[in-house]
Amino acid sequence: MHQIVRLLRCGHPIVILLAALICMQPGSARAQSEHSSCALVCVGSSRNYAQAEPAATSSSAANDTFLLTIFLRHDQSKPLDEINAQLRRQDYFKEFPPQGIEVVSWYVMMGIGQVVTLRVPASRLREVNRAIEQTAWGPYHTEFYPTYDYKSVAQEERAKNQ
After folding, report:
1. pTM for the whole structure
2. CA 122 to CA 133: how far, in whole Å?
3. Nearest C-alpha neighbor of 87 from the set 118, 131, 145, 121
4. Which domains, from first to last, does the chain contain?
């Protein structure tokens, strides 16, 4: 749990969300026994951030984005033509992603389906979720993962250690 506490020191709400998700991952008996403590630390950290953070202006709120990776797993009990027909009936191609949401990457993973990474303003997370619920459920089984770009950090570490 001390790694989680280190993560929380920055106090940013996105980091707190990621730490909470880590706490909820199933694992060893030790990890499960620490679950309650971890959740309390996350809640306490989010409250501290909220109290310490000055009121956000609309421009800073607009820049408060995070990466969201969505797994759109094909329903393999249906042929592709049937999946695409249902997506059209549900206006998937019109509604997802919502207007103004940046698509960072969109790949097909053979045997899985599609993997989409979006840059989402925190204030629009519900809108992205609703677009998936209303247009992708049925043809796809969905999974959501908060994500961050680690490439530059990894490159720096590799350069230091060569």
Report:
1. 0.60
2. 18
3. 131
4. 2-52 (no CATH), 62-147 (3.30.70.920)
